[in-house]
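Next comes this protein:
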Amino acid sequence: MTDSSTQGIKTVLVPVSDLATAKAVYTALLGIPPQTDGSYYVGFDAAGQHIGLLPGGGPQGMTSPVPYWHVPDIEAKLAEMTAAGATVKEPVRHVGGGRLVASVTDADGNVLGLLQDR
């Protein structure tokens, strides 16, 4: 193992079919309005967690929620996970603001996201 431990799941992205209804439901659940409120993404920051709503699964075409594990070194963690048997679903890419994301699938097809803030 390397010293690329995780900082836990701090981000979960959720595909939604009706953004307005989903926004209302998550606002009721979290008790706060969204911090990011656009037609392509609605994001909530609550209790150290970020919940993002993606209409139609976003450009990734997500079909189920994806937890994003925050890591200090995304490249090292991706290499460690693929060496252990994970398959790269989305390679590392910049998504703005110094943030890097990637995703893998485990042997059962579950999608696991990785996220590094610089």
